[in-house]
């Protein structure tokens, strides 16, 4: 993209493809501001311009999600979801539509990660992992990760099937 003939503090928005998050379109606002320097009048005005990229507040967008899987009892399982958004999203996990109880044995971690290039500031890339050290039949069900911030939420769900005998 080439930008020409911009006026001081002129704003515009550009839609760009974000291949790192499956080619979704993200609105990016770009502000060009003129720097006040002591350049002689005959200097080109364009030499005193610098772009500043501004990422406006946005609802979460899932970047990576887990898939449906079937495992043997005793297997280690890691279900991962990652999202971007401004402000950075927080995750909540459920099993069959219910909060996961403390005695379930799941370990849930969440943190900022260095995201793939092209998805915005890495400080807004959040990875959440639900880990099971030793899967049991009762761990089977529909797991959902939901990323939420002050602008909205987005969710993904898939089944974890743990083989076992029918009671």
TrEMBL record:
SMART domains: IG (SM00409), IGc2 (SM00408). It is a single-pass membrane protein. Its main location: membrane. GO terms for molecular function: cell-cell adhesion mediator activity. InterPro entries: Ig-like_dom, Ig-like_dom_sf, Ig-like_fold, Ig_sub, Ig_sub2. The keyword Thylakoid does not apply. It comes from Pararge aegeria aegeria. GO terms for cellular component: axon; plasma membrane. It is found in: Membrane. GO terms for biological process: axon guidance; dendrite self-avoidance; homophilic cell adhesion via plasma membrane adhesion molecules. Residues 60-161 form the Ig-like domain. This is Jg20343 protein.
């Amino acid at each position: 993209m080439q930008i020409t003939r911009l006026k001081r503090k002129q704003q515009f928005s550009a839609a760009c493809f974000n291949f790192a998050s499956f080619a979704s379109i993200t609105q990016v606002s770009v502000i060009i501001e003129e720097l006040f320097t002591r350049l002689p009048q005959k200097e080109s005005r364009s030499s005193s311009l610098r772009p500043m990229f501004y990422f406006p507040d946005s609802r979460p967008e899932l970047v990576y999600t887990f898939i449906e899987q079937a495992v043997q009892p005793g297997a280690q399982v890691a279900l991962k979801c990652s999202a971007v958004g401004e402000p950075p999203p927080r995750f909540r996990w459920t099993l069959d539509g219910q909060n996961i109880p403390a005695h379930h044995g799941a370990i849930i971690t969440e943190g900022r990660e260095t995201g793939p290039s092209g998805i915005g500031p890495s400080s807004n890339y959040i990875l959440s992992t639900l880990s099971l050290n030793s899967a049991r039949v009762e761990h089977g069900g529909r797991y959902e990760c939901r990323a939420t911030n002050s602008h909205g939420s987005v969710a993904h769900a898939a089944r974890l099937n743990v083989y076992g005998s029918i009671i």
